Amino acid sequence: MTNLVALSATEDRRWKAAKLTRPFDASARHLVDPTAKARYKAVSSRTGVPWYVIAVIHMRECPTLRDGSPSFDHSLAQGDRWNQKSIHVPAGRGPFKSWEDCAVDALVNCAPYAARWKDWSIGGILTILEQYNGLGYANRGIASPYIWSGTDQYVRGKYVADGRFDPNAVDQQLGCAGLLMAMAVLDREVVFGATPANDNTATATTTNKPVVVAHPTAAPPPSITHPAPGSLGAWVASALAALFRKAA
């Protein structure tokens, strides 16, 4: 079993030493684009996962469009279309009503249950991201290309299929760490170690439906027993209360 505390410390050391070896700017700009960012924030408010973490998962898991941006037609969980039942792991999810509902399901109801994660330091972020892809690289004691591709922390080695590791294969996608570095330069809201603005953190459960985190409970609607302040009903209730007090 992988020691996640040790992995987090290792990822933190790699982060401090890492240098980019490929350009990340263009991809990072897609992830901090106001329209995309608003969608990531909508999912963050329902799961407690920082929006920029959701953004880099989106870039890694989903097909990219001609302009290089990740497709919102595909699932954050495994890249399948969210309006159909998924066939890749996690299989059998959906269909969903929206990309956002599908993303919430992926973060709340599917391993590694990112909505349960509490450590949003950079070491913690990279650790949950590595779990999202699988701990095969950590178990081999090597840097995961899912995290480090495009930096000097990764050279070669890749799982080219489930359980099949090719030591000479090179991951062509950009890794999460470099994307986060580039996003932090472009957007001052990318602050590692920060708590998401919405404190309504989802509780992960195993279902086939997305969990929607409730907003703070609102006041009950006016009724005969709870009239609205300043209303005629409130005046009548006050008069009756005074009458009963005199009778007592």
Supply database-style keywords.
248 residues, mainly alpha, 2 domains, two-stranded antiparallel sheet, 10 helices, 2 strands, globular
Give the biggest beta sheet.
2 strands, antiparallel
* Mean pLDDT over the full residue set: 85
Order of strands side by side in the largest beta sheet?
1-2
* Whole-number total of structural domains: 2
How many alpha or pi helices? 10
The H/E string reads HHHHHHHHEEHH
Amino- and carboxy-terminal Cα gap: 71 Å
- Helicity level, as a percent range? 40-55%
Stretches where pLDDT is under 50 for at least 5 consecutive residues are 197-226
Whole-angstrom Rg = 24 Å
How many E strands? 2
Report strand %. under 5%
Taken from the alpha-carbon principal axes, the silhouette is globular
The structural class is mainly alpha
Structural topology:
Elements: H1 4-17, H2 25-32, H3 34-47, H4 51-61, H5 99-109, H6 122-133, H7 136-140, H8 145-148, E1 158-161, E2 164-166, H9 176-186, H10 232-247
Antiparallel strand pairs: 1-2
Helix pairs in contact: 1-6, 2-9, 3-4, 3-5, 4-9
Tell me what the structure shows.
By secondary structure, the chain is mainly alpha-helical. It folds into two domains: 4-186, no CATH class; 219-248. It contains ten helices and two strands, in the order ααααααααββαα. The protein has a two-stranded antiparallel sheet. A hairpin with a 2-residue loop joins strand 1 and strand 2. Helix 4 crosses helix 9 (176-186). The radius of gyration is 24 Å and the shape is globular. The N and C termini lie far apart (71 Å). The relative contact order is 0.16. Mean pLDDT is 85; it is low at 197-226.
